[in-house]
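Long-time lurker, first post. I've been practising inverse folding by hand and with some scripts of my own, and I keep getting stuck on stretches where the structure tokens seem ambiguous. Below is the full token string for one chain I'm working on. Before anyone asks, I'm not after the true native sequence, just a reasonable design that respects the backbone. If someone could post their per-position residues I'd love to compare against what I wrote down in my notebook.
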């Protein structure tokens, strides 16, 4: 059986896969081209140092992950298309903030938008959304 951390990240990816027309991946490298509906990349991030509660020992995590949302530049209105995809990601995350009971709460911050340049590739437009995953485990490796 996989760790609670792996179960959570897999469930979060599954939520992102529900975004219509977009392709969702986990820890993928930046591509040279992006699918027409956009690309969503979940970055595993850092679980950080947990708060520890004794008797029974419980580790309380505030895992910092990141969601990258990327579009190919050259669409008629890059900003509007990126905003539409961003809103769809927000709706997918909001639909189940406990990921089926795996976590206490999902919380995310404001997006940071930028143009992305890759040598020899068409320009990309992207945004990054920080996400905090609040959960507990009984083992630091679990």
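-- Answer (accepted) --
I ran through it position by position. Result:
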């Amino acid at each position: 059986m996989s760790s609670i951390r792996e179960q959570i990240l897999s469930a979060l990816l599954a939520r992102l896969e529900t975004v219509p027309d977009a392709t969702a991946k986990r820890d993928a490298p930046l591509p040279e081209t992006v699918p027409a509906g956009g690309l969503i990349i979940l970055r595993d991030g850092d679980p950080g140092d947990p708060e520890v509660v004794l008797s029974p020992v419980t580790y309380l995590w505030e895992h910092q992950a990141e969601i990258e949302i990327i579009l190919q530049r050259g669409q008629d209105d890059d900003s509007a298309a990126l905003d539409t995809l961003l809103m769809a990601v927000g709706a997918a995350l909001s639909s189940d903030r406990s990921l089926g009971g795996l976590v206490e709460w999902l919380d995310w911050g404001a997006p940071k938008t930028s143009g992305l340049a890759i040598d020899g590739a068409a320009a990309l437009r992207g945004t990054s959304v920080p996400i905090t995953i609040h959960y507990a485990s009984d083992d630091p490796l679990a």
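A couple of notes from the structure itself: The chain has a mean pLDDT of 91. The chain has two helices and seven strands. Happy to go over any region you disagree with.
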